[in-house]
Amino acid sequence: MSGHAIPAQRWVRIIPVAFLMYTFAFIDRNNIAFGMFGIQKELAIQATAAGLAAGIFFFGYVFMQIPGGLLAEKWSAKRFITIALLIWGCTSMATALVQNLTQLLIVRFVLGVVEGGVSPATMILLTKWFPLSERSRANALWYLCIPVASIITGPVSGWILTHYDWRMLFILEGAPAVVWAIVWWFLVDDKPSDAKWISPAERDYLETTIAAEKKAIKAETPSIRQVLRNRNVVLLLVLFCFLQVGFYGYGLWLPTLVKSLSQGSMIQVGWITTIPWICAMIGSLLLSMRADKTRDYRTYIAGPILLAAVFLTMSVLAGPTRPVLAIAMLSICLGFMYCYAVYWTALTAFVADEVLAVAMGTINALGNLGGFFGPFIVGYLIDQTGTMYVGEVFLIVCLVISGLVALQLRNRPAPLVTIEATTRTAAAE
Q1: What is the pTM of this model?
Q2: How far apart are alpha carbons 198 and 190 in whole angstroms?
Q3: Pairwise CA distance, residues 391 & 382, whole Å
Q4: Is residue 63 within 8 Å of 113, Cβ to Cβ?
Q5: Which of 163, 298, 322, 412 is most buried per CB count within 10 Å?
Q6: What domains can be seen in the chain, in order of their start residue?
Q7: 310 or 131: whose pLDDT is higher?
Q8: How far is CA 101 from the centre of its chain?
Q9: CA dihedral 74, 78, 79, 85 (to 10 degrees)
């Protein structure tokens, strides 16, 4: 039986449930970008403090990166994420109760802690369901939740803020996570051998193929010490830090930037902010398909990041005098910047399964500190200069550094494993 003839229930069962789960996570993480319009006014805080409130999430995010991946690997991604859904939904809704900056910082920090382990846990889950020949596409489809969440957040948040206030925003957008915990529990399984819905042919294909791939990767990275000394892993960590500064500095200040360019109402700003995220969806899918086909991770990480810096520069040059052009360049920028599916596939191709959770958690923990520094530094620069321009230049520099570091990667993915090859290996053993 060829790989093409294998049933593919995993695509319609695992991906959609994981997609919606993390969609809710990203909405609850980023809706502060819209809530900040009311928060700054009611709590009387400046842009620097607003950037701190948006970014402190990522300090909390650090704490569960390695534990989340390890719990998914050694215990259960299904159980861990179910618990996280319940807690983060309640924490997000609790944002509606804050009365001062200190309380806001505490709630955002706790939200970061709770959500912190979900991303590595989900990526560990996907490595058990999708072999390397499919993994960039699987990661890309899952990671589409981020632009989709941002597309949803804009118009929905604009509508809520038009008819209610920022407190109701957090209540209405936090509740779905609690409901989805029930759906997640009943529909997701940790691995093919646990699933009653999967066909024997698909189960055998996944278990045999993924086991052979893990064996090949393990030969190159047998211990966590060697992983942390691995040239590609170190480069992936550094480029991820700077990419996160650019991505979250861009994303969390995007509504403010769009409003300054368009001078529109909140509903109009909400709709306009969907355009860059639509570009991100298209870019992610195209990049992941090419990366799966070529295994050239360096090109499909470095090239898009550097092009994102180019288009962000063009947006800055267009400025408020040409708002349509500026927003168009912003949109194309995000279409290239959003290369995360290829990034995480590169890591899983370089690192053995036994140490993947620790490596992934370490990179995500340290890298996501960029998610703090991006919004915070941009907010500080806004306060100091009274304009978004200097903040955008800072983000451009970070993207250029990230892209140049990515160019130093060496393409050493694990060999493509086919079902015929793994069948012969199993027979020989």
Answers
A1: 0.68
A2: 13
A3: 7
A4: yes
A5: 298
A6: 9-201+208-428 (1.20.1250.20)
A7: 310
A8: 27
A9: 130
